[in-house]
Amino acid sequence: MKIHLDTDLGGDIDDICALAMLLRWPREILITGVTTVGEINGRRAGQVKYVLGLEGKNEIPVAAGADISQGFYPYELGLPPEERYWPEPIDPVPNAAADAVRLLKASIDQGATIIAIGPYTNLYLLEKEFPGSLQNARLFLMGGYVYSPRAGFPQWEPDNDFNVQVDAHSAEAVIAHSDPTFVPLTVTVETALRRAHLERLRNAGALGQLLARQAEAFAEDEKLGERLGAACPALPDDFINFQHDPLACAIALGWQDGVEISELPLRTEIRDGALRQRIVAEGKPTRVVTKIDGDKFSAFWLDTVAGAA
User: Fold this and answer.
1) Are 291 and 258 in contact (CB under 8 A)?
2) Which of 146, 223, 233, 307 has the highest count of CB atoms within 10 angstroms of its CB?
3) Number of structural domains, the chain?
4) Where residue 251 sits, what CATH number does that domain have?
């Protein structure tokens, strides 16, 4: 199976968790390219190349895509302190955003599944440059908001859907010109990266050690477990972060243990500057992941990245 990953790796650590899972996927897959979005002069692309190098995958093409300097985002998409999250300085890999568009197009032409786990800006630029490309692509989007999260999990609203809302106009255009499968925030909040996972990660080679390092730094910086725990009894006591992006990638690759995908008639529109999705009778038939088993996925992710216990 061929896949292309479009990612904003470097911020929330679920992106690096997703890439690590792809690199250690139990069945053979071919990563035809990785493009980065929300770029900062190639810093995210440099970090992607560093991760690929840890696994001896330097042959995978990487291109920096839409940059924060291009005006797509309403605020600066920064990165955490490099010295805390990475074991050594990482050289940026800057290039023209058009290079990422061409790499995406080449992946689609090869029949690759496109998995977008960051803002949808690169996909918008692809469709603008090569009209009709998205309609021909097998596309999985991390994001979307139709139903509310289940009780016990964070009761987030559509405005919390970062991938969609940070560049809502690109998201609207991408959705209008494609036939995607959504893996929405409201189901990905049922996954968990836990402190109990860190020991196995530390024994899983250089990549596992990097994941453990970043998880510890993220836990100290974000304190999601402490901030959400009292209001979210379904989260484990040792919660560190959600595995939004790894879940989207796994579903794109066919993982379906406890997964339900429904076809819903959705109307997508921008209201008051934010993107909204509603079920209406005349809506566009759209595949949406509506149910998962978060515990099973979290265990699967750990076994895939760190080896079966």
Assistant:
1) yes
2) 146
3) 1
4) 3.90.245.10
Give burial (CB, 10 Å; 0-12/13-18/19+) of 2: middle
What distance in Å separates the CA atoms of residue 163 and residue 154, rounded to the nearest whole number? Answer: 17
**Which residue segment(s) compose the domain that 195 sits in?**
2-306
Tracing tokens 């209201």 back to the chain, one arrives at 271
% residues pLDDT > 70 (the chain) = 99
Residue 179 neighbours by CB distance under 10 Å: 15
143: left (phi over 0), alpha (psi -120 to 50) or beta: left
Q: Is 157 helix (H, G, I), strand (E, B) or coil?
A: coil
pLDDT at 145 over 60: yes
| Weakest mean pLDDT among 87-91, 109-113, 225-229, 233-237 | 225-229
Phi-psi map region of 104: left, alpha, beta (phi>0 left; psi -120 to 50 alpha): alpha
119 Cβ contact partners less than 8 Å away, ≥ 6 residues apart: 8, 37, 38, 66, 72, 73, 162, 163, 164, 166, 167, 170, 171
Tell the residue number behind the tokens 């250690």, with chain if given. 24
| b (16+ CB within 10 A) / e for 250-285 | bbbbebeeebeeeebebebeeeeeebbbeeeeeeee
